[in-house]
DNA sequence: CGATCTACCTGATGGC
DNA sequence: TGCCATCAGGTAGATC
């Protein structure tokens, strides 16, 4: 569920509440969330280290430690990072608990256990976390000149939606924001990338940056199942600004003429207005 | 190279 | 009330 805006909101929570803290104790419940290495590797790598920064690359959270290693957390579909006082009742599916030196605990909670937590040496990132090393440009964290997007769209005949979802190309966009971005840019999800002229490309670039920025400002999107919440357990409000995602059958709020359609492509739900997206 | 499918899990939801 | 099928924000790997 969490895409760039949600992960960025979690990152800001970590920057505010966890950076500067020493990890005094580590517990690992389900081994599956540390499957990339091991329970022992996570405990040994984190215990008695200080978190010195909170960064984000695409949908990956990366927290450098004073040991020189980095902590990586990926929330995948249902992961959450929550902050709580020591001793608080832990929710079901709390798989990792970090005790901090100020009396708080950081929990990694994940019902579906697609998410993962790992400590790795940064110079070994290509081996330890290859997908992290192979991420494309981050449209918010990196400089993302529109000429770079121009080069990307000219290089392929792939449809725009799968292109936006490809983390090797642009890092951080997921299923919700891909649909919202393409609607804001008035471009069909199945439009071949290399058919965009310069003007349409600039529009797409503007929509990527504006949509993600607005979503971050709103604290991300929290859907009905409340799977995504920030460190303090609060949901985001950007779902109120969704114009196509989850709005199949509704009149398009932008052009006022089309009806939002929901289709499936490559197994992902896709929402768009057949009238104003071309 | 690119499109499609499956698998990984649990929980929520809707139909009967 | 309960049972079963279906679906979900992500990614990796297999297949064609």
Q: How would you briefly describe this protein structure?
A:
The protein is α+β, with helices and mostly antiparallel strands and about 280 residues long. It contains 8 helices and 11 strands. The structure holds a DNA duplex (16 and 16 nucleotides).
Uncertain regions spanning at least 5 consecutive residues: none
Give the overall pLDDT as a whole number.
96
> How is the largest sheet built, in terms of strand order?
2-1-7-8-6
Q: What is the domain total for the residues?
A: 2
Our Rg estimate from Cα atoms comes to: 20 Å
Query: Can you tell me the CATH class of the largest domain?
Result: Alpha Beta
Mass-distribution shape? globular
- Main β-sheet: number of strands, strand sense, barrel status? 5 strands, antiparallel
Structural class: alpha+beta
Helical fraction: 25-40%
CATH architectural type of the largest domain: Alpha-Beta Barrel
What proportion strand? 15-25%
Task: Tell me the distance between the termini.
Answer: 27 Å
CATH homolog superfamily of the largest domain: MutM-like, N-terminal
CATH topology of the largest domain: N-terminal domain of MutM-like DNA repair proteins
Question: Helical element count?
Answer: 8
SSE run? HEHEEEEEEEEHHHHHHEE
Number of strands: 11
């Amino acid at each position: 569920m969490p895409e760039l805006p949600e992960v960025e909101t979690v990152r800001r929570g970590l920057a505010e509440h966890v950076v500067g803290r020493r990890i005094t104790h580590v517990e690992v419940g389900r081994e599956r969330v540390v499957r990339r290495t091991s329970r022992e590797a996570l405990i040994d790598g984190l215990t008695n280290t200080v978190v010195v920064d909170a960064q984000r690359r695409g949908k990956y959270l990366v927290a450098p430690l004073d040991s020189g290693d980095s902590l990586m957390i990926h929330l995948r579909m249902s992961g959450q990072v929550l902050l709580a006082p020591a001793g608080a009742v832990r929710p079901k599916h709390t798989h990792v608990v970090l005790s901090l030196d100020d009396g708080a605990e950081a929990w990694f909670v994940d019902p579906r256990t697609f998410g993962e937590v790992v400590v790795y040496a940064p110079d070994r990132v290509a081996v330890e976390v290859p997908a992290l090393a192979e991420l494309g440009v981050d449209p918010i964290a990196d400089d993302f000149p529109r000429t770079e997007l121009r080069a990307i769209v000219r290089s392929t005949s792939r449809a725009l939606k799968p292109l936006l979802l490809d983390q090797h190309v642009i890092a951080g966009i997921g299923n919700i924001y891909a649909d919202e971005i393409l609607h804001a840019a008035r471009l069909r999800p199945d439009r071949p990338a290399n058919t965009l002229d310069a003007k349409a490309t600039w529009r797409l670039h503007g929509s990527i940056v504006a949509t993600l920025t607005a979503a971050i400002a709103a604290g991300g999107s929290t859907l009905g199942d409340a799977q995504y919440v920030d460190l303090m357990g609060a949901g985001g409000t950007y779902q109120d600004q969704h114009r196509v995602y989850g709005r199949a059958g509704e009149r398009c709020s932008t052009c006022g003429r089309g009806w939002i359609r929901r289709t499936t492509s490559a197994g992902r739900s896709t929402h768009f207005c057949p009238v104003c997206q071309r």
